[in-house]
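Co-fold these.
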Amino acid sequence: MALYSEKVMDHFRNPRNVGVIENADGVGEVGNPVCGDIMKIYLKIDNDIVTDVKFETFGCGSAIASSSMATELIKGKPVSEVLQLTNKAVVEALDGLPAHKLHCSVLAEEAIKKALKDYYDKNGIEYDKNLFPDCDSCAHCCDQ
Amino acid sequence: MIYADNASTTKMSKTAINAMLPYFDNIYGNPSSLYAFGQEAKEALEDCRQRAAACLNCEPREITFTSGGSEADNQAIVSAAKAGAKKGKKHIITTAFEHHAVLHTLKALEKDGFEVTYLDVHSNGIVTPQQVSDAIREDTCLVTIMFANNEIGTIQPIKEIGAVCREKKVLFHTDAVQAAGHIKVDVKEQNIDMLSISAHKFHGPKGTGLLYARKGIVLSNIIHGGAQERSKRAGTENIAGIAGMTAALEEACASIDENYNKMLPLRERLIDGLSKIEYSELNGDRESRLPGNVNFCFEGIEGESLLLLLDDKGICASSGSACTSGSLDPSHVLLAIGRPHEVAHGSLRLTINEEFTEEDIDYIIEAVTDVVTYLRNMSPFWRDLVNGVRPHVFAK
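Predicted complex below.
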C-alpha cells in the first residue's frame, strides 16, 4: 500500500501550472517555513474569469500535489465559482489524502482565497469578509 | 535500487541467514525442555551467548537476549531507576538527542518523580565528559548516553564518559545500536556498565537484540513470566534470531577495520559532492562520525518531497522533516544541534554500507543535486531566500 494515491503521485511528479505570473491580478501566500510548507498562488483574472493560474510550493509531496490539483480545478472558472472551492473538493479530486496530510488541501484552499482577496483589495471591489478565513490564526500551523 | 538507508535497517548477511535456518526445522525444541532435544536448543543458546560476549568483551552471563534495542534500552534504564529509587536517588543524566527508546522511557520516569538532565550536544553533535562530570549529583542513579547518534552518526567519547561515571560511582548505560558491528565496542576497555544492541543494524535479523549488564547490576523485569534468561526476561527464547544475531555480530566485528576503510573514502566523497550544492551543510561532526553516515540540510526545500523524488530515481533514503516524522516538528536531533525548524525540514540522511561503489556515490550526488535544484525552482521559500526577503541560514 503506497503512501499516496496514483493521482497524488501524478500531480506531485508532474505538477501542473508551476511558476509565477508577472503582474498577477491576485497573489496569495499561506504557511511559513517553520511549519515546513508555504504555498503561493498567482491569478490572472479577465472579466471575472480566472484565465491563468500559477503556483509555487515549498512542502511535502501532498502539498505540491494539492496545489497542482487546486490550480487545475480553478483554471478557466468564474471567480464566483472559484470562491466555492473547498479543500474537500481538492482531496476528492486527488482520490484522497492520508489523514495527517489533509492540512495540505486546506492550505491550497486558503492560498486561492487569499489570492482572490488580494484581487478584490487591489481593485477596490466590495466583498463579504466572512468568506475569507484569517490565515494568520488558522489552526493547522505549529506555534512559532 | 540503491539502498542508502542502512541506519534504518540492513540486508541480512548470508552467514546470518544460514545460521538461523537449523532452528526453524531441525533444532526446534524449547530450550526449557528437559529432554535431550530441548537441551540441544539450550546448548545452541548458550553457545550464542558465549560468542556474543566474546564480541563485546564481557562474560556470557552478563548478556540478556531481548527483542531488540528498544527493549534493551527500556530494561537498562528502568532497572537503574528502580535500583536508584531504593536508595533515594532519582536523578538521571542523558543527552537531548537520544533515540526515542531512551527519551520516551525517561519521560515515563519523569512522571514517576524522576528528574532528568538533558545535556546539550552542541552544534557538532558531541557531548563532552566534562559536561557529564558537571551534571552528576549525589542523587544521580544513571547516565545514559548513546554510543553513536542514529540520525547524524556522531560518535560520543564513550570511554571517557564511562571513566567519569566509574570515578563518581554512577551507572553508565549506552545505546550502542548504531555503533555495534560498525566501530569498536569493548565494554571493559570503554568503562561501560550497560549496553544495548540490535541485530538488524549489522546484517542480522529484526526482532532480536541484547542487553549487556555488568556483573552485580540487578536487572528488573519488563516482561514477566517464565524463568528464561536467568528470570530476567520471560518468554521462550527466539533461538533462530539469536543465532542469526550472533553470526552477524561475529562477522561484522571481524570486518570492522576492513569495512571502515572501505566506507570512509566513499562517505568523504559523498560529503564533498553534496557540499557543492549551494546553501547546504553537513549535520554533525565530520571526524567523529560513523563511517557510513551522511546527513545534510538543504535550504529552501522540504525533506519528504526530496525523498519521494529520490525514490523515483531508485534511491532509498530518510529525512528528519516533520512530514516524514508524522508530527508537526522536525527531528529532535537536528533541533538539538541547533538547526532552525525551516532548515531541519530540508534534511536528508544517507547511510551507506561496505558494498557501495564510487559509481553509486556519484549517482547519488547527481540525483540529489538535480532534485534539490528542481524543488528549489518551485519553492517560494527559496525564491524569498534568493531575493533576500528572508535571510539565509548557511553560507553559500
